[in-house]
């Protein structure tokens, strides 16, 4: 089906299934699929698509950016980096008396106070900033969702993983990827909920996903953000 809304046109496929609500997904090629309950009217499906219009356009734009290919970061004034799901430029202040370079977010940019303008030092300062922010954000998120669980994590660590966003071992030790500080808060929350659910169910079985969905009904949207945008989460 082709539908125009707000002067923009998209093509999507409707699949009717045995389900109670309407779900919308976008694959890695930009194909939009709407899964709808059997017997529901097409008008209701279109209304649901229009309600998610901004989200759909955002995801399609991300796919277009991804298709253009990865661009190596440079550490010059104005280069942009992700923080909490938004893109911000970096700004520099030079202070030769500093013992350690400092990064601060002031609402408009990532302000970096550096001892000297050295690319590696700037990169390491940014990584330290993301590590610190991720630890604080994860701890806040764990505390926020703790009421859903009878068990508590034994420990929380922030790591530099190339393959996982988070893990939970049999001792309820949780680890999280520092790059999650670059993601929207709701995406970080999803990874936290995902790993906390592993305290109850170590495998990705039906009971596990049922618990995830009960706590965070829109978790598939957060998963999709990571799938489409992980290539941008870099320093």
Proportion of beta-strand residues: 25-35%
Radius of gyration: 21 Å
What is the H/E string?
EEEEHHEEEEHEEEHHH
Poorly predicted runs are none
Overall pLDDT level: 92
Q: How many distinct helices? A: 6
User: How are strands sequenced across the largest beta sheet?
Assistant: 1-2-4-3
Approximately how much helix is present in the residues? Answer: 25-40%
Oligomer: single chain
- List how many beta strands DSSP finds: 11
Q: Give the distance, in angstroms, between the N- and C-terminal Cα atoms.
A: 40 Å
The major pleated sheet works out as: 4 strands, mixed
Shape by Cα distribution: flat
Helix/sheet category: alpha/beta
Give your account of this protein's structure.
The protein has 235 residues and is of the alpha/beta class. It is built from 6 helices and 11 strands. Strands 1-2-4-3 form a 4-stranded mixed beta sheet. Strands 5-6-8-7 form a 4-stranded mixed beta sheet, with helices on one face. The longest helix is centred in the middle third of the chain and has 27 residues, at 119-145. The radius of gyration is 21 Å and the shape is flat. The two termini are 40 Å apart.
């Amino acid at each position: 089906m082709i539908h125009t809304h707000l002067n923009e046109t998209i093509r999507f496929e409707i699949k009717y299934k045995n389900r109670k609500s309407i779900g919308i997904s976008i694959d890695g090629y930009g194909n939009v699929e709407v899964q709808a309950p059997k017997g529901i009217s097409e008008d209701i499906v279109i209304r649901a698509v229009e309600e998610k219009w901004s989200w759909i356009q955002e995801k399609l734009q991300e796919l277009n950016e991804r298709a253009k290919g990865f661009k190596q970061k440079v550490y010059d004034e104005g280069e942009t980096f992700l923080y909490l799901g938004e893109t911000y430029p970096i700004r520099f202040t030079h202070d030769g008396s500093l013992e350690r370079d400092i990064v601060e977010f002031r609402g408009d940019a990532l302000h970096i106070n550096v001892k000297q303008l050295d690319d590696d030092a700037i990169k390491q300062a940014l990584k330290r900033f993301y590590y610190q922010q991720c630890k604080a954000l994860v701890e806040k998120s764990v505390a926020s969702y703790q009421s859903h669980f009878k068990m508590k994590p034994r420990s929380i660590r922030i790591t530099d993983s190339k393959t996982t966003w988070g893990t939970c071992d049999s001792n309820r030790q949780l680890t999280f990827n520092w790059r999650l500080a670059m993601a929207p808060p709701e995406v970080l929350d999803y990874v936290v909920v995902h790993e906390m659910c592993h305290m109850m169910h170590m495998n990705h079985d039906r009971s596990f996903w049922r618990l995830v969905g009960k706590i965070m009904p829109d978790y598939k949207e957060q998963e999709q953000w990571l799938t489409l945008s992980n290539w941008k989460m870099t320093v």
